[in-house]
Design brief:
The complex is a heterodimer of chains A (about 180) and B (about 575). By secondary structure, chain A is an alpha/beta fold. The longest helix of chain A has 18 residues. Chain A is elongated and about 70 Å long. Chain A starts with 7 loop residues before the first helix and ends with a helix. Chain B is α+β, with helices and mostly antiparallel strands. Chain B has four domains: about 160 residues; about 150 residues, no CATH class; about 110 residues, no CATH class; about 100 residues, Tick-borne Encephalitis virus Glycoprotein, domain 1. Chain B is about 60% helix and about 10% strand. Chain B has 17 helices and ten strands. In chain B, the strands form two sheets. In chain B, strands 2, 3, 4, 5, 6 and 7 form a six-stranded antiparallel beta sheet that branches. A four-stranded antiparallel beta sheet of chain B has the order 1-10-9-8. The longest helix of chain B is centred in the last third of the chain and has 36 residues. Classes of the chains: A alpha/beta (about 180), B alpha+beta (about 575). At the A-B interface, α1 and α3 of A face α7, α9, α10 and α11 of B.
């Protein structure tokens, strides 16, 4: 065997060391921003999950008025925390559509009965495929969609009470 | 005082590790007999002191000594004793202490029990153990002191948060029946990587011990296995990979472990490159042979290891080029999955091959029975269980083939004269087949129902009839709960009771489901109590997971096989030594 080949493992380790040193030094912003912000929604069509409520397809967004796309799940605890803010937004006249991630009909019905139902449409995203295609890495996340069906902003994590005026202003500006 | 004694034990252990290193270095460099003679007792005491420190940490957790920062941050006096006990190492500082304790005990065991290797090699081994332990003692004492005091001491800890989060993830996994036992989470990957490397090492050591081949490769694997266990520790502890749910990220700690990594792994690899040339070439072998199969095993395990490492680290590499992304199960399933299935097939064939050289046709003939078993299984499931997924089907087929192939080496053998490590191999390989069958069966045949039921109404899931008998409020140490009493019965067999609870915790306010599980030989009946609806009926979620028990049964067999082959080898070497001595006498 060639002698320099024996140094390959050490070289690999030096590379690994460089990578993790960089990872350690890097600023601590670890939220995963969607690469889809500023782009139109990708094509999708999801079946309904709650009886009596329509499913969600990308065509529902164009043309229309600016609105929110909420990515949530009945098993997600922060989603319970953000439910009152979504109800407040709905009362302020905001249309909210949703993608329910890895959920089941009975669990979701119970969630909506307990925490309120601000949604116009809910799509059944059992495999997280639409969630991933719009660049969402967790629940809850909320996307602001303009009248042309373009993603203008991504809100990561639950919507707090002090986020509500900001969201309303941005939706108004998009009109 | 207990915490201070623990800290003192830790300092002493660290000092002894330094002494052990100096004595070993001096002894070997100057050929100093007295120095070398002192290394063994020092190693034993060093290990003993680490055990004392660990025991004292467990003691402060059991006594809920809230003046100790670690206890206040991670425990609560209301916790059940098992949580307090496990809580001692269920945190960064405690688990690092456990790590170094195991290292210390291993060193002490080598010092006490190892009598076969050359004296200088043994002293060098203990010197290396001391060098590694010293780094980790320094890490504990200077940057992760488990015994640090909290002043003033709080009235009680805030550890119930932790319990709530655990219960929350438990709920997410089981309440919705995601049905997974593996999620390719970075933390899971960090524990899988050392396991893969150690499994490869175990097999290559077999070639080394039996046929004296693959010398340099075995040395390399030993370095890799050790490196992986340290890299795994680093990845989990530095917070470098915790992504969205990052908490308690401490760059100083990360930098400390990284420095240790650079010294130990870098040093080992430089030594390997510079000195492996001095390891003489071992015996050679043909491609179709037991050694050949073990080399393929090693290569495949290494490829899986490389893929897992790459997939785990790639997000950091991408971040270095300004791209943010995360890597999930689809990558690992598609890349590592097929290789793992090939590995299972090779695992069936390997033990049926002869050492050094074998014929392809003979091997195929020996594979006829396992092949037939796999084929029969495939046909049976195609006929009787139509519509199960392709992967579960493949899993069940391979499991049947592997089960037959793994017991085949015992065929026509005198079982009383079969060496213990052969039994170890058979049992471990059988364990893989059993585990694989459990995983495939769980994903193919699990039945789940969600029902709203009145008291006394019989409900059905799988082969079981389940009746809700009563709902009563009960009080636990730190929660109140509603407890359901369910009577379940399969056919005409004896009825048994399950008591799932819906628990309400006060601090912090949380509702969790405490499932009740009945474990049978052929699977688990899994029950969860939900809410009461307007009509007064109770929601119940019932699962029948046939043969899911096989996953853990297989795991136990794998571990048993590993232990048997280890003891088998030690025992045989001891007997050889005795035979040698008798021959000399």
């Amino acid at each position: 065997m060639r002698r320099w080949l024996l140094w390959l493992p050490f070289l690999a380790f030096v590379l690994l060391f460089a990578v993790v040193t960089f990872g350690l030094k890097k600023p601590a912003d670890r939220t995963i921003k969607s690469a889809m912000v500023g782009k139109p929604l990708p094509d999708f069509a999801l079946a309904g999950i709650v009886p009596g409520k329509p499913g969600l397809s990308s065509r529902d967004f164009t043309p229309g008025k600016p609105r929110l796309l909420n990515v949530f799940a009945s098993w997600c605890l922060p989603c319970i925390a953000e439910a009152p803010q979504l109800m407040a937004l709905k009362q302020a006249g905001v249309e909210i559509d949703a993608v329910a991630v890895r959920d089941t009909t009975p669990a979701l019905q119970e969630f909506l009965a307990r925490n309120g139902d601000p949604y116009a449409r809910i799509g059944d995203d059992r495999q997280s495929s639409v969630q991933l295609s719009i660049g969402s890495s967790g629940v809850p996340e909320t996307f602001l969609i303009d009248a042309q069906g373009k993603i203008i902003e991504q809100h990561i994590g639950d919507i707090r009470a002090d986020d509500v005026p900001d969201i309303l202003a941005k939706l108004r500006a998009a009109q | 005082m207990i915490a201070e004694s623990g800290l003192a034990a830790l300092w002493l252990a660290g000092a002894l590790a330094a002494l052990q290193l100096i004595l070993a270095a001096l002894g070997i460099a100057r050929n100093h007999d007295d120095a070398m003679a002192a290394v063994r007792p020092v190693a034993v005491v060093q290990g003993l002191l680490a055990v004392v420190a660990m025991a004292l940490l467990i003691t402060v957790f059991m006594r809920s000594d809230m003046s100790v920062l670690l206890v206040a941050a991670n425990s609560h006096s209301d916790k059940p004793w098992l949580y307090k006990f496990a809580g001692a190492w269920g945190n960064h500082e405690g688990s690092m202490l456990l790590w170094v304790t195991i290292l210390g005990v291993a060193g002490a065991a080598v010092a006490l029990l190892e009598h076969r290797v050359d004296k200088r090699t043994l002293i060098a081994t203990l010197g290396a153990q001391a060098a590694i332990a010293l780094g980790f003692y320094a890490f504990l004492l200077f940057s992760s002191n488990p015994f640090a005091r909290l002043n003033p001491a709080p009235a009680d800890g805030n550890g119930l948060n932790t319990l709530g989060i655990t219960a929350g993830s438990y709920w997410a996994y089981y309440e919705l029946g995601w049905g997974g036992w593996w999620f390719w989470d970075p933390v899971e990957n960090a524990s899988l990587m050392p396991w893969l490397a150690a499994t490869a090492l175990l097999h290559s050591v077999t070639v080394l011990a039996t046929r004296d081949g693959l010398r340099a490769w075995t040395v390399m694997l030993a370095v890799v296995a050790f490196s992986m266990s340290m890299i795994g520790t680093f990845l989990v502890r530095s917070g470098i990979l915790t992504s969205v749910h990052a908490f308690a990220v401490d760059p100083e700690r990360g930098a400390f472990i990284l420095a240790l990594l650079a010294i130990y792994i870098g040093g080992a690899l430089i030594l390997f490159a510079a000195r492996v040339g001095t390891v003489r070439a071992g015996n050679t072998f043909e491609a179709v042979s037991r050694e050949g199969a073990l080399v393929v095993n090693n290569l495949l395990l290494s490829v899986v290891l490389g893929l897992v490492l790459w997939g785990t680290l790639y997000p950091i590499v991408a971040a270095a080029f300004g791209v943010q992304l995360s890597i999930g199960p689809p990558f690992f399933d598609k890349t590592a999955g097929p290789i793992a299935l090939i590995l299972v097939a090779i695992m069936g064939a390997g033990p049926l091959m002869r050492w050094r050289r074998d014929g392809g046709r003979e091997v195929l003939r020996r594979m006829a029975v396992p092949g037939a078993a796999a084929l029969v299984t495939l046909v049976m499931f195609l006929i009787f269980a139509r519509g199960i997924g392709i992967l579960p089907l493949l899993g069940l087929t391979l499991a049947a083939g592997l089960a037959a192939a793994s017991v085949a080496p015992l065929w026509k053998r005198n079982l009383r004269r079969t060496p213990l490590f052969t039994f170890g191999m058979v049992i471990a390989h059988l364990g893989i087949a059993v585990s694989l069958a459990g995983m495939a069966s769980d994903s193919a045949f699990t039945q789940q129902v969600l029902i709203a039921t009145k008291l006394g109404e019989p409900q059905h899931v799988g082969p079981f009839t389940v009746t809700l008998d009563s709902i009563v409020p009960v009080v636990g140490p730190n929660y109140s709960a509603l407890e359901a009493t369910l009577t379940a019965r399969r056919g005409d067999s004896a009825a048994f009771t399950l008591k799932p609870q819906s628990r309400f915790f006060a601090t912090p306010a949380t509702v969790t489901s405490e499932s009740a599980i009945a474990t049978k030989l052929d699977g688990q009946l899994y029950t969860v109590l939900g809410q009461q609806d307007e009509q007064g009926r109770w929601q119940l979620r019932l699962w029948w997971k046939p043969f899911v028990t096989f996953i853990w049964l297989g795991g136990a067999l794998i571990a048993l096989g590993g232990v048997l082959s280890l003891f088998g080898r030690l025992w045989r070497e001891r007997r050889w030594k005795r035979d040698d001595e008798e021959a000399l006498a």
